[in-house]
Write a structure and sequence with these properties.
Elements: E1 11-13, E2 27-32, E3 37-44, E4 55-56, E5 61-93, H1 103-106, E6 109-110, E7 121-127, E8 145-182, E9 185-197, E10 202-206, E11 214-218, E12 230-235, E13 264-266, E14 272-274, H2 277-284, E15 285-291, E16 296-301, E17 307-308, E18 315-316, H3 323-326, E19 330-335, E20 342-347, E21 353-358, E22 363-368, E23 376-383, E24 389-396, E25 400-408, E26 419-425, E27 432-438, E28 447-454, E29 463-471, E30 480-481, E31 484-487, H4 495-503, H5 506-517
Parallel strand pairs: 5-17, 23-29
Antiparallel strand pairs: 1-2, 2-21, 3-4, 3-5, 3-22, 5-8, 5-13, 5-20, 6-7, 7-8, 8-9, 8-12, 10-11, 11-21, 13-14, 15-16, 16-31, 18-30, 19-20, 23-24, 24-27, 25-26, 25-28, 28-29
């Protein structure tokens, strides 16, 4: 079954001649949008006049569809990372000479057997000159010490791949098909898919297998909608697949900014590690003792994008939504292959493509189209949570090209001020179809007049409805990081205090005297 054929606006052009040859070939120039199809037949024009008694050379219906626009981005950096779930355990020692908490064991030190578990990274930190709260007065001239051990594990075992994307190359995917009317129905007789680079120059290609129809595509240059070069990431899914591309503050491969994603990474041997953690951890981790004898302390990381294992509410942040959720022009944004060398964006919309077609000498292209239709619609105007403004309409029994406009309440009687739009509704069996149309932002909670008519419809055939404007709350990108109170466990700490209290007991003196008399 042929697709819905739009009405093409065709311009006839005459190509330059080779030397002094006289060749009667007229070229047809037109524009086509994403998802649209132009249809034509080839007719003989032996008289050379183009309109004199044209006879059909074939019953074939030829169609050309601009299937989609693709952008390919080279990936020049990549590494794997995770969101760390952090467990911090600290011990406090009142006796500065005790071996339970020494700077040589904890300052700029990794944990003993730190790499025994590939799913875990472990670092130690040391803090001297702690408050003497809870320590005996005999140690008031010396300062207690706080020794901490931090363990990092991937939160929910989710991992991601960071990608640095470079400027894009844009390609158009054109699909040619030829249909023959046979046995009371259309049957596909010929087909070809053509990918054309749009970054510059004009491309020539034959459409059909018999090389009767030549196509030239005039590349418009760089697309207006493109991602900025920089860092992006995808989630690693099962069986080597990837999720949609996401953009959020993310370290380049050589950076170690603890307030961006990507400071907790995975090496080539699948070992998790904190990037530059061996010498940066003492700067990032902060802790202090509240009561040394009772092992009470507080801890925090001067970092973002981590989860506190013992108190999830003390650390909170949002991962950004995928690009196809935040940018309406993006249909899909994904890594192309397992080699992670290219990413591809499929566009929902884009600039019209300029195409030139011509047949053989003494043949003409006759363009045909289907009638557009609509029976009714309803909708609203939305400012979404990413501040995108669009008209969200549901059309009933509609197909083809629909032309419409919007008028604000104060401009209803002013015929010179309208906000116009055109949408293409693909042919399908569904009686209802939802369409999003980019519009300018309108004030909230006002009614706007929207009118729509089929492409061939007369002005008096338009359908008008009043739609309400509304807005969604902005996405809350709160990042919370607060001090966490904990109680450590160190039976070996502060032993001298037990001995001191024990020696204050008179029974211990008597026991010592009896031992001397013996």
């Amino acid at each position: 079954m042929p697709p819905h054929c739009i009405r093409a606006v065709v311009t006839t052009t005459q190509p330059s001649q080779l030397n002094e040859s006289i060749v009667n070939i007229l070229r047809k120039q037109l524009k086509i949008g994403v998802g649209q199809t132009i249809c034509f037949k080839i007719i003989d024009d032996q008289g050379g006049g183009g309109a004199k008694n044209p006879s059909s050379r074939s019953n074939k219906l030829h169609t050309l569809t601009l299937g989609q626009l693709e952008q390919y981005y080279s990936i020049t950096q990549r590494y794997k990372f995770a969101i760390p779930e952090v467990t911090a355990k600290c011990i406090c020692e009142c006796n500065p000479e005790a071996a339970t908490c020494r700077s040589m064991d904890y300052q700029y030190a990794a944990c003993p057997n730190g790499n025994s578990n590939r799913m875990e990274a472990c670092h130690r930190t040391f803090f001297d000159k702690q408050p003497i709260t809870g320590c005996p007065t005999i140690t008031s001239n010396s300062s207690p010490k706080l020794c901490c051990e931090l363990k990092f594990r991937p939160y929910q075992n989710r991992t991601f791949t960071a990608l640095k994307l470079e400027p894009a190359s844009t390609f158009a995917i054109l699909r040619y098909s030829a249909f023959e009317w046979s046995g009371g129905r259309w049957q596909e007789d010929d087909s070809k898919t053509i990918r054309v680079n749009l970054d510059g120059g004009t491309h020539h290609q034959y459409l059909d297998s018999e090389q009767d129809i030549e196509m030239a595509v005039n590349a418009p240059g760089k697309a207006t909608n493109q991602l900025s070069p920089g860092m992006y990431f995808v989630e690693n899914l099962e069986r080597g697949s990837y999720g949609e591309i996401v953009q959020q503050p993310l370290n380049e491969i050589t950076e170690h900014n603890f307030h961006k994603l990507g400071w907790y990474r995975i090496d080539a041997e699948d070992q998790f590690f904190v990037h530059y953690g061996n010498f940066m951890m003492d700067k990032v981790h902060h802790a202090f003792s509240e009561h040394c004898q009772d092992q009470k302390f507080q801890t925090i990381l001067d970092a973002s994008y981590y989860i506190n294992h013992d108190a999830n509410d003390s650390t909170r942040f949002n991962l950004a939504e995928t690009l196809n959720s935040t940018m309406r022009w993006i249909k899909s944004a994904r890594v192309v292959d397992s080699a992670e060398r290219h990413a591809m964006i499929t566009e929902n919309e884009g600039s019209n493509l300029e195409v030139t077609l011509n047949a053989k000498q003494n043949e003409q292209l006759q363009f045909i189209h289907n009638a557009s239709r609509i029976s009714d619609f309803n909708g609203n105007i939305v400012i979404d949570r990413h501040s995108n403004a669009f008209l969200n309409i549901t059309v009933f029994n509609a197909s083809g090209i629909l032309n419409g406009y919007l008028k604000e309440a104060e401009e209803i009687f002013n015929q010179y001020v309208v906000d116009s739009f055109t949408v293409y509704i693909p042919e399908s069996m569904a009686p209802e179809k939802q369409v999003l149309v980019r519009v300018k932002p309108y004030p909230t909670n006002v009614f706007v007049k929207v009118c729509i008519r089929p492409e061939e419809g007369l002005p008096n055939s338009e359908i008008c409805r009043f739609v309400r404007s509304m807005e969604e709350e902005l996405v809350d990108y709160e990042v919370k990081n607060s001090w966490e109170k904990q109680v450590g466990n160190c039976p070996a700490c502060n032993k001298f205090m037990d001995d001191f209290i024990k020696n204050l007991n008179p029974l211990e003196w008597c026991r010592f005297v009896r031992l001397v008399e013996l």
